[in-house]
Inverse folding.
């Protein structure tokens, strides 16, 4: 088994932070769909400005809003306006890992999608095949 990059939202801009919220990162639903990230899925967040890296879970923000809001304790690790990379991973069999292509989502300064590479649909297909084989 290999832990592989499933998807990435590349160089998104943090629109706000809220230390008083329970936790998580709020991500524009359009970006979550393009990157094949489900609500409450674990994600890793890398801050390009200060080098902070942390993991949390994703929650949906309004579709098309451009929202990237870091909540709870993690809000102390980033600042509004910081550039972040948001990653999700999947555990795949050796065979699946060899043909896996992650979904890569590139955004502009307003967090609108500029282009994508890879395939979220291909990622979903591999995961469904894996779970079908391993679930009794």
């Amino acid at each position: 088994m290999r832990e592989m990059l499933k998807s990435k939202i590349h160089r998104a801009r943090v629109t706000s932070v809220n230390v008083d919220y329970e936790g998580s990162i709020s991500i524009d639903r359009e970006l979550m769909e393009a990157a094949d990230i489900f609500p409450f899925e674990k994600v890793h967040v890398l801050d390009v400005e200060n080098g902070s890296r942390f993991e949390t879970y994703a929650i949906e923000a309004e579709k098309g809003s451009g929202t990237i809001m870091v909540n709870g304790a993690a809000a102390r690790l980033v600042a509004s306006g910081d550039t972040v990379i948001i990653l999700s991973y999947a555990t795949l069999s050796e065979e699946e890992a060899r043909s896996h292509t992650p979904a890569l989502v590139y955004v502009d300064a307003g967090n609108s999608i500029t282009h994508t590479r890879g395939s979220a649909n291909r990622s979903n297909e591999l995961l469904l095949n894996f779970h079908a084989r391993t679930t009794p």
